[in-house]
Amino acid sequence: MNAILRHLVVLPIVVPLVVGALLFFLAESRRVARITLACVSMLTQLGVAISLLYLTSDAAPYIWPQGVGVYAIGGWPAPFGIVLVVDRLTAIMLTLGAIVSTSTLVYSIARWDRPGQPFHSLLQFLTMGLNGAFLTGDLFNLFVFFEVLLAASYGLTLRGAGEPRVRLGLHFITINLVASLMFLVGVALIYGMAGTLNMADLAGRAASLSPDDRALLDAGAAILGVAFLVKAASWPLNFWLPGVYSVAAAPVAASFAMATKVGFYALLRIGTLMQEYERLGEALFYIGVATLVTSTIGMLSAKHVARLVAYTVLMSMGILLASLGLRNEALTAPALFYLIVSALTSCTFFMLTGMTDRTRVTDPPVAAADRPEENEPTYAAYGVKRPSVYELPEAAGIAIPAAMAFLGMMFTACALLVIGLPPMPGFPAKLALLEGMIGGRTSTPSWVLAVAIVSSGFAAIIALSRIGMRLFWSVAARETPRLRLLEAAPIALLVLLCLALTVLAEPVMRYLGSTARSLHHPETTIETVLSREWQRERPGAPAP
Amino acid sequence: MEAVYAIAVGVLAASGVWLLLRPRTFQVLLGLTLLSYATNLFIFAMGRLGQHTAPILDPGDPGSITWHADPVPQALVLTAIVIGFATTALLLVVLLALRGLTGTDHVDGREVDP
Asked: Global pTM?
């Protein structure tokens, strides 16, 4: 039994890979088979992620006593072979990713997976890249999984075509290609100096380098960090994000909820594992605060819901990066809690955006501000409605009564989540963060960040209530969309899940606390990865 | 040899960055290509430069970094080339699509007013 459980680690990568490839070969006409296969894959990943969450906890000490599981993909021992490492942080991120992608998938079935392109395959590859990036214990492998994730996200961004998507997609691809090249330079420098790519091995080797080599290694780590910061959408590397996220189709933007978090994950993981936590430095704090400030200004200036939601994603990244930059270990657990909440929030909010967009009758949808103005008079002159690439036929199916009431309630819930008001879990998350900042060891940066967080919350109240009033209370003609149960259910379930997070905040925080402890004391992880103990119990391995 | 190699990488990278900052999509594409050449050469050099050092072990040969090349950067370069090739091809398609949709090859999809 234990031998089988050990193989769970590789499933989050293998399952979406196989299913994604299979979906390419299933004809578009066999829609039921395709959807079933995609759903089975997502639910398997969710199941596996939750089991890993349990198996790495203290409640199940029988297979990974230290809470760290290692899986050698090719059977070669670390540091020579490539290993997958699962610990509590990985398990949390896997579960979060599986929840986000499962709900996105269900949401997309209602309307969005119809037009031709291989949406389901791309979504599977996106989750494969995410899962791989969370699981891998090897720097170059991290690059490969980042590329898998990015390649899938390029395809997803362009989904539905239309000029704004292609234009912003071009920016998105270019920026991420440059970031990938920086990633490679960083990895190469680190390998050239330390002679290893295994993250756990790197930690030990970095300490024994001569000062000259160490300086070069730090330069490599810094270049690598810049690549992660592009992914994490930190200022000033984030100007692509609001545009791309607001023109992407609603389920696509929702599925990107984890894509920015993976940059933060990589910074946290490598920063703590290489014991560079102290060196991560003030720079990260200032970058985070700058991200927070720009996103606050952006929120106040946003005219469209999707753009506003994109800025709230930036706001959460700013809070996360700045709290990492404070180098206060007490902040790690609250930051992780906030990460969970903000990932769920942005997923829910983007899905909701897809619905509220359908209420507008006259206004051109998404990113009107970005469009060139020259075409405007022509359409008006001929009395023609502007041709919209976002228009999809209203799908037939079980419609939900009181659609507007549902949308309004969900909008309020999402707004409360972003702002951080009770009863949504944004409140305990921000409260824990603020308590960590100004509760014990205080310093000027802590106060600055605390003030910035609270004021960004106020700005979010203004921006969200303004847009909410325009959406639901304005006298302008709006048509009530027909909502299908399939697209409404994931939103409602995610909001309920968030409510559950508030109720269960204490056990969740306890789990996150132990996660943070193991992150800041990576010796156990390093020992477990490099020891040969776990290999002896491999089925088929010769007995010692 | 190191100096020549370093200058080559530097020139490639500098030209790549310059082209990347140009307003035309094709220049950006070429810039990315040059930058990726520079990166690939850089990764390769991280295995140390040397002559007559194939990364092949003969039977009974214990292997040493002094007379064998490090195979890992070579493997990394191969992977990086393949990934870079695929993403550049995708970028080329997007570039052509944008040209078709907007009628201009400016990266912002419209000409800057003179």
From this structure: 0.88
